[in-house]
Amino acid sequence: MRIATWNVNSLRARADRVEEFLERQDVDVLAIQETKCKDENFPWEVFEHNGYDVAHFGYDQWNGVAIASRVGMKGVERTFPDQPPFGKAGKDPVQEARAIAATCGDVRVWSLYVPNGRSRDDEHMTYKLGWLDRLRDHAEAWLTETPDAQIVLAGDWNVAPEDEDVWDIDFFEKNRLTHVTDEERAAFQGFLDAGYADVARPYTPGPGAYTFWDYTSLRFQKRQGMRIDFLLASPALADRAADAFIDKDERRGKGASDHAPVIADFS
Hints:
6-stranded mixed beta sheet; 12 strands; 22% helix; 24% strand
């Protein structure tokens, strides 16, 4: 089974690229983030025309997650249990469209769009860390209940776990940027400590194995990127990992997302 994750940064704007990608890379399951659309204007035909079942979760023009599968789909779940909402001070909290799950073949696939954090002192950072902690608690419980569970937590994690996962760690520290703080890295490490494995890293060693390049300052052309998109697999699924790669070609050319897909093969 070939499973991929891709933050497409507006699915409607990149529907043609997504369709061509699915065919070119022969993908069985695609976890999608930042669809930026509601269910009523989601491009269902792009997937259904090509033999994919698809589930989407989107409220408005922000966030949005989806899963497309050509190996079957059942048990669709929107949000994980007790997923924290986001609310600015003085405003009612809002549940954002950041997590969706479905069982595809024999694998429980989660498509996750982890909150960005915005800045180290922003209330969105508190939201991000709480969101990750709550998800980790559930992810750990799933393995405790079913040690041989086939689970993949796929998505844009908005965390660079290692110094080599950013183009210049000194630049990030000097400018007090997010994604590399001790708190964010500890939250990510919690999933590894629970037993999940980054199945792509062994096949895509760094430095330079990035999955995101900002549109500004010619970051892609200067090779100034970040590794923030991951496929974290449960132990039983990680044992089936056979290969993985980052499709950097999808970051090139007109109309590209600022993320590249991460793809893994499982026996």
